[in-house]
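Hi L.,

You mentioned the student needs an example of a multi-chain input paired with its predicted structure. This one should do, with 664 residues in total across all chains.
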Amino acid sequence: MPTNKSWTLAKYPEGWVREDDFKLVEAPVPQPKDGEVLIRNLWLSLDPYMRGRLSQQKSYVKGVEIGEVMTGETAGEVVESKHPKFVPGDTVTTPTGWQLYGCAKGELLTKVDATRAPLSYFLGCLGMPGRTAYFGLKDIGAPKPGETVVVSAASGAVGSVVGQLAKVWGGRAVGIAGGAQKCAYVVNELGFDACIDYKAGNLYRDLKEVCPKGVDVYFENVGGETLDTVLKLMNFRGRVVVCGLISEYNATDPYGVKMFRAILVNRLKVQGMIVFDWLERYPEANRALLDLVAAGKLKYRESVLQGIESAPRGLIGLLKGENFGKQLVKLA
Amino acid sequence: MPTNKSWTLAKYPEGWVREDDFKLVEAPVPQPKDGEVLIRNLWLSLDPYMRGRLSQQKSYVKGVEIGEVMTGETAGEVVESKHPKFVPGDTVTTPTGWQLYGCAKGELLTKVDATRAPLSYFLGCLGMPGRTAYFGLKDIGAPKPGETVVVSAASGAVGSVVGQLAKVWGGRAVGIAGGAQKCAYVVNELGFDACIDYKAGNLYRDLKEVCPKGVDVYFENVGGETLDTVLKLMNFRGRVVVCGLISEYNATDPYGVKMFRAILVNRLKVQGMIVFDWLERYPEANRALLDLVAAGKLKYRESVLQGIESAPRGLIGLLKGENFGKQLVKLA
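Structure written out for the whole complex:
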């Protein structure tokens, strides 16, 4: 019988996350109870929201407790089922967290068709990040044909889908990313109209040049100075989708947003989102995204670390922007 | 023949407005051209938005030019008409600005029925500030019965109407104002459920105490630290109506908003507004507000200065929060 390995929370990080905030625990593989399914996890998704779970502050979801297995989505296959809807061999996405094996109630699992796209995609462009991009852009950003959509963290799991959807829906897509390599990828591979390297140090000037008609929709994943800079370029009645503020997550002092006044002067709508709010419409997004991937219209890049041991390191790198594409850990 | 007196812009203020930024000019009373109407102004309205006109910065309306008559709404009576819809003696509101007499095209005038309410009310609770409160609260704030609505500058022209409408529409109304006297008025005369004196220095604690279920709608007229404090108390899916940021208007360095993160965490909708966007629905607001005033359900207080000479002083006092109620200048 194989052994399970799980990353648990050892202590709450202060400021930047450190590897020793987590503890790797070995234990026997758990047994499913009635209504539960045992899953062997093959892929672990690492996502910026995880920083929020490493905190006792009020947020939209309760934080992880000390000693608990770290929160996360995985993709894997069913090993044993005590739930009528699942049989061994089924491929599923699960909320079982940072571990090799996990048991979960059948209701918490999503069966995915790994014959139409690689299993790992269901953690990225066909999973939570893809649906986040889809609903945030469609319902809040709501770009009209010809409008300019700017998205930060443009090479990441959410940002890359946002820009490509903006193009599919008839808009102009402009990315913001860190480094020339990511920017080249965003333009040449993903097909954005432009991508600005914020690390080059001239974000306002560079962005203004590629957005000659201003910015109609800003899909925000970053916050901080990037947010202040884009706010200066927003058009009348522009929309700002506040999906993430990754530059803030490790900050001990929050950044002060100086261009709040733009919301008044340009009558902006600025709205926070979390994809759970669209739970009932997940099938709509899943269908649309899978069709686009199958048609070759939604490209996607993964950044893969090997082995569960690398999970904390992967999260830290993600929070520092070191990943290039959707960050995953290959567990088996 | 009487003489006209007009305040013109002498120079753009830097930081706080000063009286010598304006120049009082005397000239003959102007003659209306074809399609125009000559109005004798009886009341001049002073409003926070005027600070934005004293600037060459991009805003929703072009600024006043040096030497031009200062922008402002007035209420007065028609002296001479070369427009078929107006006759001498008609009472109107006008955009003729800070002067005793002005000519305007008939299309820019609004006839008002000064038999149902005092003429000056059509510059306040029955005019632009009242309509601002009505549409901002109804369409953006959209309070549901039982929800808590907080409004800053609660004793002012807009804020006082916001809170009273919140009550009429079944919500709880909580004001923020400067000083015990204004707060007592907001509760005892206007019927708000509570009003917090931000000058007492415990805004967060005091507001939290009177909003035990949090804040669902925040109608913002002030900005700065007040905004940051209320953002901490916003409920999931709360709405922030950004109507004004008076604390910022004279600032040379903008305030940095630290609680932007609340927009993400609590999925807030934050939207800037200007009442012009509802131009086609003005009759709806005018009817509703006049009915409420006539029924004694919408109370209102004016702060009146005598004579056109006092206009610059009145605007400066308004921007410092020295007024108590809607600021007007009685011109005749």
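You could point out the following to them. The interface with chain A takes residues 52, 58-60, 223, 227, 236, 242-245, 248, 254-261, 263-274, 277 of chain B (CB under 8 Å). Chain B is about 25% helix and 25% strand.

Best wishes,
N.
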